[in-house]
Amino acid sequence: MKTYTVGIIGFGFIGKVHAYAHLTMPLYYPQSGFRTRITHIGTSSMATAKKGCAQVQADVPVADYREITDNPDIDIVHICTPNHLHRDMLLSALKNNKHIYCDKPLVANAAEAAQVREALAGYTGTAQMTFQCRFFPATLRAIQLVREGFLGDIHDRWDLIGVRRMVEDVAFLIISDIFCCAPPKTLYETTIDLTAIYFRM
What we know:
Layout: E1 2-9, H1 13-28, E2 34-42, H2 46-56, E3 60-62, H3 66-69, E4 76-79, H4 86-95, E5 99-102, H5 110-119, E6 127-129, H6 137-147, H7 170-179, E7 189-193, E8 196-200
Parallel strand pairs: 1-2, 1-4, 2-3, 4-5, 5-6
Antiparallel strand pairs: 7-8
């Protein structure tokens, strides 16, 4: 059985949520061909990294994210730090061809998103941003209905309550193309996350 080693960078509330998912996954999903094991916890201080390791029985506390992103023994990198820190961690993980699960937003602005896009050249891992609601049964059903034409032709993108047009959010458009896990030629993509629903044609 393949064991994927996991390093979590950032272990505040969100880092603990990510860790909880790994720890409880075997209770809900069969893992006959693989399993995951959190081996490294990275935070801004060794004291909190050690505390995080003790909480999830991880082996290695680190205070420098590169000890996770550059480590050949790590398969999967979780990025759970404040938003303005994501870019450098992403670039390092991409350079080292790690599988990546990055909390949202992916980066802080469109310029950083463009840098991440450039870094994808030659990347062969699996990368995703935490739009976890897309895998809920209701969301998957919504995607099915859109693809079957139930909603007709969708020509624009609005948030759920119509506060602003998502089509004008350039950074979101760049980021969604990079990490939303849809094939480039997908006819429709539906993503529901928290209070927003996006329809992409």
